Please model this.
Amino acid sequence: MKELDGRIAFITGAASGMGRATALLMAAHGATVIVADIDEAGAKAVVDEIAQAGGSGVAKALDVTSPEQITACLDSVGAQFGHLDVLYANAGTPGATGHNVSQAEYDFSVGVNLTGAYFAAQQAIPLLNKSPHTASILFTASTAGLVGSFLSPLYSMSKGGVVMLAKALALSLAPKIRVNVICPGPIDTPMLPRFWSREKQEGVEERLDSWVANDIPLKRRGRPEEIAEAALFLAGDRASFITGVALPVDGGFTAR
Ligand code: NAD
Model:
């Protein structure tokens, strides 16, 4: 028996990185995965990968900064499937780093990382309530939502908000829906060097390697598949008594 057999999972930011890895893993474990992303071609490519592996997926173009698009997207999911079992609000952006952030940059970061997570959850709740199982909401925050990020106060603030959103929803949606948040450390996806190059273009990989060597006890970057394993566990019934947890998957970064 596969862990998510027959379940319907909706993942935002699923065209790349950890969202993509989670879509592939959840589909391999029997879920029908709705692969939602602002990058529609990327979402379709992930659905093709799922199909090639014998799984089932549907691609949706979605900009999570638009509550109207989230509503329309979830309405179409409701019309097709009738309910949802798993929502993984994962889409995120590094946004601007440093202190001299403009109002437009502020609105963009908060729009993707926090507003996008909030409205994805809010709009999915009616469909999750129709799940025949205990439904599950997952978010991707960051270790920067647990401890301050020296690179970006704005990113830390938005991800800290996601952590608290998850905890508050865990209380208000129990016992029907479990809610947990994954807090990744440095994970090898296209976003990681983008985040570090905001401060300065030169020597991004070297600066990252040096930070990882000094500050990550396991002495390496994580892989998107390692986030997907945590997401699969938290989404399914093996985690049936776990709600309101902010789980670092960070090579030990926040242990000190
Ligand atoms: P990624 O760049 O590989 O994937 C992010 C995906 O989100 C992309 O497919 C992108 O198109 C999509 N996206 C961006 N803006 C969107 C929007 N407005 N609407 C819909 N989709 C949108 O990056 P990743 O590292 O896999 O990031 C996934 C999550 O993990 C993000 O929330 C990020 O903040 C968080 N995170 C990443 C790291 C890391 O080291 N990579 C560490 C901590 C947290």
Q: What stands out?
A: The chain has one domain: 8-190+223-248. Strands lie at 8-12, 32-37, 56-61, 86-89, 135-140, 177-184, 246-249. Residues 12-13, 15-19, 37-39, 42, 62-65, 90-93, 112, 116, 140, 142, 184, 186-187, 189-192 surround nicotinamide-adenine-dinucleotide (CB under 6 Å).
